Amino acid sequence: QINATRRGLELFQARGLSDAGPADPAAVQDLFSRPEVNYGTEWTAAMSSMIDMIPRGGAHSGLAYKMMTTQAVVTNAREAKLDLALADGAVENLTWMFADLTPIQAVWLDVDLEVTTTMKPVPHLNPLNTMDESMLRLREGGEQQTSKRKEPWKFPKMSFDDGDAIWFRIKINADKVVPNLPPGLTLAGDEALLWTVRWQPADVVNAWGLHSSLSEDYLDIENNEIWIVVPVEYKGVRYGYPILLLVDEDIALLIGLDIAGLPKKMANITYTFSPKPSRGSEVSLSISRNGRNVLEFSGRLTGKTEEPVAGINDMQCPTHDCDILTVVSKQFPWDPDYNRPLYLEVKTATRTFEQRGMEDLRATLGTAPQEPLGQWFAGQPTAGGYIRMDLDTLPSPNTPMENLLREVDKEGYIAWWKTSFPLLYM
Questions:
Q1: Who contacts 129 (Cβ-Cβ below 8 Å, separation ≥6)?
Q2: Confidence category of residue 231, pLDDT binned at 50, 70, 90
Q3: Which residues pair with 274 in a beta bridge?
Q4: Where is pLDDT greater, at 154 or 173?
Q5: Of the given ranges (126-135, 336-345, 360-369), which has the lowest mean pLDDT?
Q6: Any idea which of 55-69, 197-211, 358-372 has the lowest mean pLDDT?
Q7: Peptide bond into 275 cis (omega under 30)
Q8: Beta carbons of 109 and 79 less than 8 angstroms apart
Q9: Which DSSP string do the residues of 344-377 spell out, in sequence order?
Q10: Residue 100 has pLDDT above 80, yes or no
Q11: Burial state string for 8-18 with b = 16 or more CB within 10 A and e = fewer than 16
Q12: pLDDT score at 44
């Protein structure tokens, strides 16, 4: 039996699988030989119309389809019989794709595949005109999994509500961090900012409560995530660069990747306060991924504080250190002369309800190459605290016009992507 389940919905079932005799391997190989085409959902291309309005030259303009050609080597093929069943949810309604659920053919096979990808540019075609709302919702929507809803009295509305956040700073091992910085960025400080938050809830695609067509029937989610941010300089301006984020909610993962270029990966996150956040509360944070220990952290909350934290909730930060620089998106640059990622500059806007200090901070960092916190950072946290807040983002007000949405430097990008592959995808 084969089951495909997402967000509690059993989308697809194949049941009663039985052998029906040998199949023709050559005929099965022909099924794989048809090229497949897609344009992806990353918003790098979708920003091309904005780039064209910026008074400077650039290679990135228009849509870029990706054509994938597959070569298959089938070593064993057997005809099969089976029954299919589908379940429709609020977003993932698959039954409309099929006339009925009687399989025309079913084959059980052993196969090796080699896929070759090439770019098919369509210059000056605005990708926003090609994005079908239903297809975006299939990727970035899903079943409701939290009963928490946004409080209607809050104004302005923000995408992320009632976040319980803890933060700490820790010393950087520069020689270990620098190889993971995209080309054009240099390290601009000796401390990193790590902050973990639980949003209760978030409506990720509904910035400032302005419902786009995508978020017409918006979806509240509740999730934990950790930001690992290092100070960088890009073309003479300082930013915080999120070198890695870990989340435990797939919608938060997909939207962060597609729209903001955030290097998010799924992880197991256990984040608790005992008792609820107040003076003397014990904080415990445990993060793992695929059986690897990433971070263990503990601390104890102290009295209330007033000074905002640069890089999280400091709305009056006098320097660019409070702005965030990301790469949208981090897909492999199949044709860097036509289609390559962009630097995106934003600033966080927050509404702070409570802040507290923290003492007895202890951190144990994993050293696996996929999440090398123990290689990037040294010693114990130097400072930390607690913030309860709402959050949304704005365009960076201090970034010079010539830096806005600038393409990632071509030289060195492919080498950086290969170096960072375990960090980004494994």
A1: none
A2: very high
A3: 282
A4: 173
A5: 126-135
A6: 55-69
A7: yes
A8: no
A9: EEEEEEEEEEEEEEEEEEEEEE---TTS-HHHHE
A10: yes
A11: ebebbbbeeee
A12: 53
> By mean pLDDT, which of 90-94, 111-115, 342-346, 366-370 is the weakest?
90-94
Q: Which stretch of DSSP H or E encloses residue 413?
A: helix 413-425
Q: Which stretch of DSSP H or E encloses residue 380?
A: strand 377-395
Residue type, 82: L
Q: What is each CA distance from 50 to 43, 62, 330, 397, in whole angstroms?
A: 12, 11, 19, 17
Place of tokens 């904005």: 50
How many CB atoms neighbour CB 359 within 10 A?
Answer: 10
Cβ neighbours of residue 415 closer than 8 Å, sequence gap 6 or more: none
Taking the C-alpha atoms of residue 257 and residue 330, their distance in angstroms, rounded to an integer, is: 8
- Measured CA to CA, the distance from residue 261 to residue 319 in angstroms comes to 23
Tracing tokens 């079913």 back to the chain, one arrives at: 106
Task: Tell me if 251 sits within 8 A of 204, measured CB to CB.
Answer: yes
Q: Which pLDDT value is given to residue 28?
A: 84
What is the average pLDDT value for the chain, to the nearest integer? 85
Separation of alpha carbons 140 and 361, rounded Å: 37
Closest to 176 in 3D by CA, of 375, 407, 411, 417: 375
Lowest-confidence segment of 44-58, 162-176, 191-205 by average pLDDT: 44-58
- Give the DSSP H/E element, type plus range, for residue 177: helix 174-177
Task: Tell me how far apart the alpha carbons of residues 55 and 352 are, in angstroms, rounded to a whole number.
Answer: 38
What is the mean predicted confidence (pLDDT) over 133-153? Answer: 75
3-state class (DSSP) for residue 47:
helix
- Measure the CA–CA gap between 209 and 215, rounded to whole angstroms: 10
The mean pLDDT of 14-40, rounded to a whole number, is 85
Instruction: Determine contact, residues 184/234, Cβ cutoff 8 Å.
Output: yes
Kindly write down the DSSP assignment for every residue of 274-342, as one continuous string: ESSSSTT-EEEEEEEETTEEEEEEEEEEEEE--SPPTTTT-TT-SSGGGEEEEEE-----SBTTTB--E
In the block, tokens 């228009």 appear at 62
CA distances (Å), origin 375, targets 227, 293, 369, 410: 17, 13, 9, 28
